[in-house]
Design goal:
Radius of gyration: 16 Å
CATH superfamily: Jelly Rolls
Shape: globular
Strand order of the largest sheet: 1-2-10-7-12-5
Structural class: mainly beta
Mean pLDDT: 93
CATH architecture: Sandwich
Low-confidence stretches: none
Number of helices: 2
Strand content: 35-45%
CATH class: Mainly Beta
CATH topology: Jelly Rolls
Length: 188
Amino acid sequence: MEVISTEIDGLFIIEPRVFKDQRGYFFESFNEKEFSQKTGLDIKFVQDNESMSSYGVMRGLHYQKLPYTQSKLVRCVVGKVLDVAVDIRHGSPTFGKYVSVELSEENHRQFFIPKGFAHGFSVLSETAVFQYKCDNFYHPEADSGIYLLDESLGIDWRIPAEKAVLSEKDLNRPLLAAASKDFIFSVL
């Protein structure tokens, strides 16, 4: 696997080694030892999640409040998504900045998102099956987020406004500027 650094420290794009032949393909979607060696991180994933969504669905920008923050390793196993991570670590030189990466069944890329980032994605294909590993269990009382269409973030989700499908919960998330510092991960 190849680990690609991004413009924001701590966010990595993972490109697995894919072996293809006339039968199809094979790759290791996760190898704890190799992940640790190549990223320098000792992450123990404890929960795997999967969602299926149609074109235009936008999910996010979600995060878990302290003390239940989560690191995630995400991938799209069917279809194509635009995946986005926003730095919400107060005191970080990249606070409010984001990295986006296209994840698809064709490129097999994965995106590692550490604690202190809000995460979301938009579905660019007819349907998409999205999977993610988390290093902490989900706690409903710690569920939080930022409005993903916050203009101050400047994210191009690549979905026309009239085609966007958002949950009621995501439509009512606060803007980054209005989100309480008490609920956002701080740089230690």
